[in-house]
Structures are given as structure tokens and as C-alpha cells.
Amino acid sequence: MKLLKTVLSYGLPLVFAALLVWYTFKGVDIEQMWLSIADANYFYIVLSALPMTVAHWSRGRRWQLLLQPLGHKLTSFDAFLAVMSGYFGNLIVPRMGEVTRCAVLQKRNNIPLNESVGTVVVERVFDIVMLLFITALAFVFEFTKLTTFFTDKLAQKQALANAQPQTNNNGLLIGLVVGLVVVLLLGFIAFKFRDRLMNNKFFPKIKQFLLGLWEGILSIKKLERPKEFIFHTVLIWVGYYFTLYLSMFALGATANLGILAAFTILVVGSFGMVAPVQGGLGAYHWIVTMGLVELYQVEKIPAAGAATLFHTSQTIYTFLVGALCSLWVLVDKSKVKG
Questions:
Q1: Distance between CA 16 and CA 164 in Å, rounded?
Q2: What is the per-residue pLDDT for 172?
Q3: How far apart are CA 35 and CA 338, in angstroms?
Q4: How many CB atoms lie within 10 A of CB 151?
Q5: Which element (helix H / strand E) includes 322?
Q6: What is the per-residue pLDDT for 175?
Q7: Cβ distance 57 to 80 under 8 Å?
Q8: What distance in Å separates the CA atoms of residue 289 and residue 300, rounded to the nearest whole number?
Q9: Among candidates 52, 207, 59, which has minimal Cα distance to 119?
Q10: Residues 195, 197, 203, 206: is their CA dihedral positive or negative?
Q11: pLDDT tier at 335 (50, 70, 90 boundaries)?
């Protein structure tokens, strides 16, 4: 059973990613695409590493600010090492990034894992808020393009639905009702056997972990520098934007699309990166290719090449810098806490 769970946990995302890669590059002349990538101006790709580094460093600094109210002091360098080690770990083993970077702080700064995990949850909440905010801005800046795109897609979907035989539309409602019943049933069981659960030997450990997690979440209320926290929350996304904006100059097909196009593709690509696949593989390629083709009329071959170049260059950067940071953590014994 454990083996099956492991296979499903790691195998399904890879299968999903493979299907998306196949769908994205279906009908694309791969040789022609690679020729377009080979002709890219890699000066801009190398230059894009600068704002990316600023974004990751800023993420580390923001994490510092969240840990300060909990009484944990660490350097920006230590925070950067932990963040990049986490990204590296996530590339190697899906969903291991957050645990990895918290483990680095535990090793180097003796910060309890549960407390640092709690602050990571806070980070994720603010990342989601920022993603929703920049998505709204994208609709403001590119209102005509985006509304036309979604209107056309909905019209196509409706036309397809009308052409198909009518089916039972109660599936979603039934699923919601079943889900609600399951949640209520689990809650009743937990309440009914609460005494037995509380006497279980694992309960104190679970309770301690949850309390530490909650304390980490509440640290947002105790920030010593809330304005700096907001500044770095914005700066992270500014860094992401200029990383993409500079990368677009590397290819003739995207060099002249402009600052608003870069902003919109950043939003589109971000949804690809948060998809449940390792490192956004497949999802990023598909959604960025579709965005370039549908919104900015880029031909599919150069659009797929651009998505591949953007994703590959960022992945290589993350792998190399993350590997160096992880190696530093392993060999540097001066900061290890006993």
C-alpha cells in the first residue's frame, strides 16, 4: 500500500507533465524549434539571472522578517541558502522544497521545523494574494485581449457542448454532497473517539507541531517591519517580471511584444508553475505557448520555442545555484548548531 501511494504521488504528476509536453509539442517541427532556440541572443538570458537572483534573495529576506517575531535571528545569506536549497530539493523530489529549506534552517540556525513551516504557510498565502492581484492588473492592462480570448473560448466550449448529446449535469452537485458527508462523518468519528485519540502516543507530537505551525502563522501580526515585508513581497514579483521581460529579448518572435505582453505572459506562466507537476514541466510550456499564440499571434513553433527557452533557462539557473547552495550547507560546518 505504501509503495502504491508513493508511485501514485510521484508517478501521476510525471504522467500528467508528459501528457502536457506531448500535447504542447504535437504538430510542432522540433528541429525547427530548436534552431530558433539556438539562434537566441543568450546575452539576455544570462542578464535575466540578475533580477531572478534579486527575487530569490528578497524571498529570503522576507522570510527573515517572518522569523524575527519568533525570536529567531539569521543572516540574509542563511535565508538565501535555505530558499535556494529548497528550490533545488523540489527539482529533485517533488513537494520536498519547503521541507528542505526548513530543514536547512534547523540545521544551521537551530530553528524548530514546525515554526519555520508555519512561516512558509504565511509566505504561500501572500504569494497567492500577489498572484491574484497581478492577474487582476493583467486584465486591466490587457482587458480587450484577455476578455476576447476568454469569450471566444467560452463560446467554443458552449458550441461543442450544444453539439454533444445532453448528459446528466448533476455530477458536480453529487460530488459536493458526497464530499460534505465524508467531512462530517470524519468529524463525527474524531469527536466520538476524541479521548482515545488524545491518549494516543502520537497526539502530543501532533499537538506540538500544530501549535508551532499556528505560532508561525500568527507571526504576521507581530512583524517588526511590516512595510519592509510588503516591499519584499512586491519586489519578488518585480524580479520575476524582469527575468521574463529580459528573456523575451533573446528571441525575435518575442523581442518586440512589449512590456504589457511580458506582464501578461508572467501571469499566465505563473499559473503553469503552480500546477501540480514537478517544476511546472509541461504545464508551463503549454500555457505560455497558448498565451503567445492566442493573445499575441506568435506562430506556434517560435511560441513553443520561447516557452521552452524561458522554462529551461530558469530551471538551469535554479538547479545550478540551488546545487551550490546545498553543497555549501553540507560542507560549511561553522554554522551548524548542536
A1: 26
A2: 46
A3: 53
A4: 10
A5: helix 300-331
A6: 55
A7: yes
A8: 7
A9: 59
A10: negative
A11: low
Instruction: Report the SS3 class of residue 93.
Output: coil
Least confident of 128-132, 162-166, 236-240, 299-303: 162-166
Residue with cell 499537538: 207
The Cα–Cα gap between 298 and 311 comes to 18
Query: Would you state the pLDDT for residue 168?
Result: 47
Structural contact between residues 292 and 268, judged by C-beta atoms closer than 8 angstroms? no
Q: What is the CA radius of gyration of the chain?
A: 23
The DSSP call for residue 166 is: P
Report residue 31 as a C-alpha cell: 528541429
For residue 277, count CB atoms less than 10 angstroms from its CB and return exposed for 0-12, middle for 13-18, buried for 19 or more.
buried
Neighbour-count burial of 307, counting CB atoms closer than 10 A to its CB (0-12 exposed, 13-18 middle, 19+ buried): buried
**247: which 3 cell numbers?**
528573456
Assigned C-alpha cell, 161: 457542448
Give the three cell numbers for residue 267: 501571469
Calpha distance 98→117 (Å, rounded): 7
> Among all chains, which residue has been given the C-alpha cell 514579483?
237
pLDDT in tens, 90-111: 888 777 888 899 999 988 888 8
pLDDT at 177 (0 to 100)? 63
Phi/psi of residue 48, nearest 5 degrees? -70, -15
